[in-house]
Amino acid sequence: MIGQRPPGSAPAAQANAEDLPFEDDSFDAAMAVFTDHHWGDRPAGLREMRRVARRVVILNADPALAESFWLSRDYLPGFGDLIPEPYRRAGYWIQELGNHLGAVEERSVPVPHDCQDGFYQAYWRRPHAYLEQGVRDSTSVFHRLSGDEVTSAVDDLRRDLDDGSWKERNADLLCKPDLDLGLRLVIAT
User: Fold this and answer.
1) Is the residue at 6 inside a domain?
2) CA 20 to 30 Å from 149, out of 3, 29, 64, 76?
3) CATH number where 57 lies
4) What phi, psi does 118 have (nearest 5°)?
5) 30-58: per-residue pLDDT in tens?
6) Domain residues for 27?
7) How far is CA 30 from CA 19, 23, 49, 172, in A?
8) How far apart are alpha carbons 104 and 59 in whole angstroms?
9) Count of domains in the chain?
10) Residues facing 60 on adjacent strands
């Protein structure tokens, strides 16, 4: 991604979230987008963000709401096994963020039906996208599950799309312009 930046872009630094190479209060804001669940030591990374910035912004999905998405619920039951037990409890994730960041504000971020960003829930109203290898290759969930589970999910989804059962089961989604799938914007000031 750094190599794709246009000439004259602001400097880019490569570092671990848990050990940022910046002085205290170096930035007005630090932001993590769909990344904090991949850090080796999440609490340390959150504290580092707080140390280097006066405001911290995190966008991610509340893990307790993972099964609100039809793909997780109906096709990838192993997704739930990737979520550590405490995070499955309602409110735990936001409380944990507050423990490391201080007072936080939480805002729901509905996903538009034509979202172009390509994260896990982006194609909620375009289920055929999940049949595409490129879509799965760019989504970490598919890399963390066994190949057999992903293959089975894709086969089942393809069958359900072909025979109309996906559409029948999810008909209420097809007219919605956006949907709350658990994405949350968390702001600590």
Assistant:
1) no
2) 64
3) 3.40.50.150
4) 85, 20
5) 999 999 988 999 999 999 999 999 999 99
6) 23-188
7) 14, 13, 6, 37
8) 13
9) 1
10) 184
Given a contact cutoff of 8 angstroms between Cβ atoms, the answer to whether 159 and 87 are in contact is: no
pTM of the model: 0.89
Residue 55 and residue 189 in contact, taking contact as beta carbons nearer than 8 Å:
yes
- Looking at the DSSP bridge assignments, the partners of residue 108 are 184
Does residue 8 lie in a domain region?
no
- Please write the tens of the pLDDT for every residue from 107-153: 999 999 999 999 999 999 999 999 999 999 999 999 999 999 999 99
Residue with tokens 């989504």: 139
10 lies in some domain: no
- How far apart, in whole angstroms, are the C-alpha atoms of residue 80 and residue 38? 16
DSSP 125: T
Residue 16 lies in a domain: no
